[in-house]
Write a structure and sequence with these properties.
By secondary structure, the protein is an alpha/beta fold. The protein folds into two domains: about 200 residues, Rossmann fold, CATH 3.40.50.2000; about 230 residues, 3-Layer(aba) Sandwich (Rossmann fold). The chain has 19 helices and 13 strands. Helix 16 links the parallel strand 12 and strand 13. Helix 8 packs antiparallel against helix 9. The radius of gyration is 22 Å and the shape is globular. The two termini are about 20 Å apart. About 15% of the residues have low confidence.
């Protein structure tokens, strides 16, 4: 069993699958025959597509790759990346001769691994199969990547019934498609369990201090190598703000994994806690931002930055934390447009534990990420999707996500409306109780399906 990943979302969503594969009696003994109740032997292959952003996640999930392909080169075209992936993955397949190759999602790594496996007539299992926007350039190149994988895979693990229907419309074998839920919910369970471990709060304090030191608006910019001038708040602003985040988390109370994964809005809880104190430094509206999509490079990223400027100018009590993606197409634009802006804190990419904690405490998330659209229903936080289309309409239908594109006026309008709804409690009251992305047992279902397929059942 060869598990292949190259990016941060792949690690997050495949970590629960790898853990389930290693269970000696199978993750669900009620569904696995005794004759097949043995652990798989997952071999982990990391392609290195997003090295700096993946390595901290390997530590969090205690994953040690058996292969590291080092495929990335500076400013490489997609064709060059795909070619290197095919050649280097083929060598791994030749050496390991696995029964299965497991891929996740729609990355170039996942597409190339599926194609390389097909060339050697090795079976492919596709985690998070069936997502579609019906626009081959949006997102780019992911929409075509996942369509290619669908026609190469032998088992399709659809996260939702809608994803299954997408695959059926394309004529794929009905018996090879199963709705499992999304493994991102499993990953959140894993992370929230870690936050309950002794000493975790002290670790979090250390991570928060690292964010303080790493504020790109006051520190040394990786992109330019120049010292950035602080805004009016400067280092003191981000220090008091992050201290307040820790305090509001304590005030809101620690959450067990099941509680945090209901529709109860932790953001609303935290907001209520923050407004119950007279501390003038405590933020009442915490906004978390991520942006990295290729289709947003250039003008799109500039418009996203303009939207952020508009929001903070119209919401004086808002504080923004923006972990800036390492891609120079993102970083150069964000730093040039937002560095030094008061109450906008540009920081290095965060480890998953810290990021999940900040998502829990956020009043609003602005993102072009696919994974965050899935995590938001689990954490009860409203999300503005800074894309024109989404392959995860379930989040929109559940009332936790809204499409804003990269239109600054639309993003601003949505942000102001949603912040008011969170403050009043209207957002929390309107949430549906059922998480459209699953119950946290997707990985168990996936491994059971793999065992049954191997046993011929």
């Amino acid at each position: 069993m060869l598990v292949v990943f190259g990016t941060r979302p792949e690690v997050i969503k495949l970590a629960p699958v790898i853990e389930a594969l290693r269970q000696p009696a199978g993750p669900d003994t009620r569904k696995v025959d005794d004759a097949n109740a043995v652990a798989f032997e997952p071999v982990i292959c990391f392609t290195g597509q997003h090295r700096e952003m993946v390595e901290p996640f390997l530590e969090i999930f205690d994953l040690k790759p058996d292969y590291d392909l080092h495929v990335m080169q500076e400013n490489q075209p997609l064709a060059g990346l795909t070619a290197r992936l095919l050649v280097r993955l083929d060598k791994v397949l030749e050496a390991e001769a696995p029964d299965w190759v497991i891929v996740q999602g729609d990355t170039t790594t996942a597409m190339a691994a599926s194609l390389a496996a097909f060339y050697r007539k090795i079976k492919v299992g596709h985690v998070e199969a069936g997502l579609r926007t019906e626009d081959k350039y949006n997102p780019f190149p992911e929409e075509i990547n996942r369509r290619l994988i669908s026609h190469l895979a032998d088992l399709h693990f659809a996260p939702t019934p809608r994803a299954r229907e997408n695959l059926l419309r394309e004529g794929l074998n009905r018996r090879a498609i199963s709705v499992t839920g999304n493994t991102v919910v499993d990953a959140l369970h894993m992370i929230l369990k870690k936050t309950e471990e002794p000493g975790w709060s002290e670790k979090l304090k250390g991570k928060i201090k690292e964010i303080k030191r790493g504020d790109l608006t006051t520190g040394k910019s990786v992109a330019t190598g120049q010292r950035k001038k602080a805004g009016k708040h400067g280092a003191t602003g981000i220090t008091s703000w992050l201290d307040a985040i820790l305090e509001r988390g304590r005030t809101a109370g620690a959450k067990s994994a099941p509680a945090a994964l209901t529709a109860t809005s932790s953001a609303s809880q935290a907001a209520a806690a923050s407004t119950s104190t007279s501390s003038p430094s405590r933020p009442t509206k915490l906004i978390l931002v991520t942006a990295h999509r290729r289709e947003s490079f250039g003008e799109g990223m500039e418009r996203i930055c303009e939207a952020i400027r508009r929001v903070v100018s119209h919401v004086p009590e808002a504080e923004v934390i923006f972990p800036v993606h390492l891609n120079p197409n993102v970083r150069s634009v964000v730093l040039s447009h937002l560095s030094g802006l008061e109450r906008v804190h540009l920081v290095e990419p965060l480890d998953y534990l810290t990021f999940v904690y900040l998502m829990q405490q956020a009043d609003l998330i602005l993102t072009d990420s696919g994974g965050i659209q899935e995590e938001a229903p689990s954490l009860g936080v409203p999300v503005i999707v800074m894309r024109d289309k989404t392959e995860r309409p379930e989040a929109v239908e559940a009332g936790v996500a809204w499409l804003g594109g990269t239109d600054p006026e639309k993003i601003e309008r949505l942000a102001l409306t949603l912040l008011k709804k969170v403050e009043s409690g209207e957002f929390r009251r309107g949430l549906k109780r059922r998480n459209p992305f699953g119950d946290g047992h997707a990985a168990a279902r996936i491994v059971t399906l793999l065992k049954n397929k191997d046993s011929g059942t």
